[in-house]
Specification:
Elements: H1 2-9, E1 19-22, E2 28-30, H2 31-47, E3 55-59, H3 64-75, E4 79-82, H4 89-99, E5 103-106, H5 111-120, E6 125-128, H6 136-142, E7 158-163, E8 173-177, H7 178-191, E9 199-202, H8 209-222, E10 225-228, H9 234-240, E11 246-249, H10 251-258, E12 273-276, H11 283-293, E13 298-303, E14 307-311, E15 325-326, E16 331-335, E17 349-354, E18 361-362, H12 366-372, E19 379-387, E20 393-398, E21 403-405, E22 408-410, H13 412-420, E23 425-435, E24 439-448, H14 456-464, E25 475-478, H15 492-498
Helix pairs in contact: 2-3, 2-6, 4-5, 7-8, 10-11
Bound molecules: adenosine-5'-triphosphate and magnesium ion.
Length: 504
Amino acid sequence: NHFFDIVRSRLPADPAGKTFLETPEGLRWSYADLVAESGRYAAALVGLGVAPGDRVAVQVEKSPAVIALYLGCVRAGAVFLPLNTGYTPAEIAYFLGDAEPALFVCDPGKLDALKPVAEQAGVKQVGTLDAEGEGTIAAEAAGQTGDFADVARSPDDLAAILYTSGTTGRSKGAMLTHDNLSSNALTLVEYWRFTPDDVLIHALPVFHTHGLFVATNTVLMSGAAMIFLPKLDPPRILSLMGRATALMGVPTFYTRLLKEPGLTREATAGMRLFVSGSAPLLAETHREWQEKTGHAILERYGMTETNMSTSNPYDGDRVAGTVGFPLPGVSLRVVDPETGRAMEADQVGMIEVRGPNVFKGYWRMPEKTAAEFKADGFFITGDLGKVDPRGYVHIVGRGKDLIITGGFNVYPKEVETEIDGLPGVLESAVIGVPHPDFGEGVTAVVVPRGAEAPSEAAILSALESRLAKFKLPKRVIVADELPRNTMGKVQKNLLRDEHKGLYG
Ligand code: ATP
Ligand code: MG
C-alpha cells in the first residue's frame, strides 16, 4: 500500500508514546492508536463489502474518527470521497449519482433526509458517524481487531476523490493518487521543517484539501502532533498557542484572530509557523500580523487538483501578496492563454503546473480532463498570475474573473488593490457585469471599514488619478460584507448574478 507503507516507515520510534492527535475534550490518540483505529475502520469497510477502487462517500461533522475513516479507506484500497458538510440533500444527490460510491456515510441527524437520496442514486449501503465519532460505522469498526493487513496499492492508484470548492461553477471530482498525496506531504514536511516536536492547531474542515491533506498528512508524515478543533474558534486558538508550534488557516483565520485583543508577541512567542492559503491573503493582513506578533505569515498556493504547488520560503523573505516559489519537484510556467507562448517576468498570463502533485484527471469527465492538460503534461490551473524577477509567483485572479470591457482586459485584483488602499475601505470585490456598450462594465462592490461608507463619487475621484480610464469602475456598490464560501473564498459568481441587471 503505497501511501500507508510510507506512513509506517516514518512512524515515531515509540508509536505508543507519541501523540498524533488530541482534542480539547481530552481525547488523545498516540500513533499506535491511529494505526489500530484506522485498521479497524479498514476491516469494517472490507466487512461491508467495500472492494479496492470502490468509492466511500462521506458527509460528516469533523471528528478524529473521520481521520481514521480516511486512512481506513486508503488502507483498504478504497477511494475516500469527503463532501462539504454544508451540501443540501439535492446537492448530495448529484455527488452520489456522479461518484457511485459503494458506501455512503452521513451524520445520523441527516439519515432520514439522505437515506432516500442515497437509495435513489443506487448506493447499496448507508452508514452513520456523528460529531462525537459515534454511529453505525464506528460500531462496525469497534468490533474489529486493529491488526489489518493493508491492501496492496501502487503509486498511481486512487486514494481519494475530492470535489473542487465550486467557486466558479459546478464542483468537479479531482482524482488523487497515492503518490499525489504522499509526494506532496513529504515535500511540505521538508519545506516547512516539520518535526516530531511540532504541535499543529488544526481548526480547518476535513472535507477540503487544506485540512485533510496539507494539514493532516504533513503532521502524519513528520511524526508531529495536532490539536483537533471542530471549527474556527479564535479565542480558543489563541489560548492554545502557548503549547502549539504551528497554525494553518485560510485568510479569515488571520483577520478574525487580528480582532482578538490577546494577540500579542508574548501570546505567539512559542509558535514557529503560520501558514495561509486557499484564498488570497491581503497584504495588509500580512503586515498587521507581523506588526502585532513579529511573525511573517507564510502564504502558499494550491488547488484541489494539484495539492500544493508554490510556497513562500521558510528562510528568506515571505513576501506579502505573493505565493512564493514553485515547490521542489513542481514546474510552473506562465503562458499567453491564446498562443501558449511563455511570458516574460512580470507579465500576466495563465499559470500552468506539472509534477507529482498534479492529479490524474477529473472523475468521469474525460473531455474536460483532456482540455485542461497540455500535450507536455502541464495542467492549466485557470488562475492568472505572473512571476516577478526574483522568482516569486503572484496570483492575479481567476481567468473566469477577468473583465473584458470595450475590448480591454481588466484584472480585478489591480483595481481591488487600489480601492482597498483608500481610507474608510475594508475590502472590495471588482467584477464584470453585462453592459450594453462595453460588453462588461467594471463594477466595484465595496465593504466600508466603519459605519460611515465613503461615497461612490469620493471613491471614483480618488481612483481617477491612479487607474487608466478603462479600468475605472462604472459603478461602486456599498455592501455590508462579501459573500464567501466555507473556505473563505469570495463568490464572485453570486455578486455577478446579484448585479447582472445593473446596466439595464
Ligand atoms: P472550483 O474549481 O470548483 O470553481 P475552487 O477553485 O475555489 O472551486 P479549490 O480547489 O478549493 O476550488 O481552490 C483552488 C483555488 O483557490 C485556486 O485555483 C486559486 O484560485 C485559489 N487559491 C488557493 N490558494 C490561493 C492563494 N494563496 N492566493 C490566491 N488564490 C488562492
Ligand atoms: Mg478551481
